[in-house]
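W.,

You were right to be curious about this one. When I first looked at the sequence I had no strong expectations either way, so I just let the prediction run and decided to look at it fresh. Below is the sequence, 250 residues in total, followed by the output.
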Amino acid sequence: MNELVTVITPCYNAARFIRETIESVISQTYTAWEMLIIDDCSTDGSASIIKEYADKDSRIKYFKTDQPSGGPAVPRNIGLKMAKGRYITFLDADDVYLPTKLSNQIAAFDDKDIAIVFSNYEKMTADGARRNRIIAAPSKLSYRQLLKSGYIGCGTLMYDSAKTGSMEFSPIGHEDWAFALSILKKGYIAKNTNTVEALYRLVENSRSAQKFKVFKCQWYILREVEKLSLWRAAYNFSCYAILGVIKYLK
């Protein structure tokens, strides 16, 4: 296949990591991609690093928000508006793709009901040390299954925009989970490549590291976004919390 893939990367003060992140996209075995990096008004050297790469590789494009948004939803939505690829995927500015991520995921869109392809991922320390802390997920997920789990890591998610139509992130906490739910709610399936295709960096004080806030946002999505009854929300919340603890301990 030679379908264009758009990689969207929100960036805020990621000078320490952004070079490695960009290099992981450049190193992909699949070469038909564009990388849209949206700088959320960084105050460190992130912008100059990104522009350095953009000047050398026309597939890498630099954008900047008008003012700091305080989260990834606004930068990602800017990327979605600018995206030219049929297949769209996401990569945070401190995470890393493994070389076969794009090629293995595109190959998995082999059924009309599959709108999302995702992968397993491995945790790494802030300094990039890998200790085989792999987060594995089921081979396929439906909307009902995703309601009670956080199995799809945003850094591994790829979706087919020809099936989903125009998409955007809601400016709420845990927006990546709500985003995936909104696609599967249409009746589509998410398929796992059953391979490890990304490295997730554990950084202190990151939003995902603030577990109480994550659970609070998850409850909000179940009740206010997905409009589940109190009983259904409580059931799915309990399942999610148990799986979340297990994932955290890995």
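Here's what jumped out at me. Residues 230-249 form the longest helix (20 residues). And, maybe more interesting for your project: Residues 5-204 form a domain with the Spore Coat Polysaccharide Biosynthesis Protein SpsA; Chain A fold (CATH 3.90.550.10).

Coffee later to discuss?

I.
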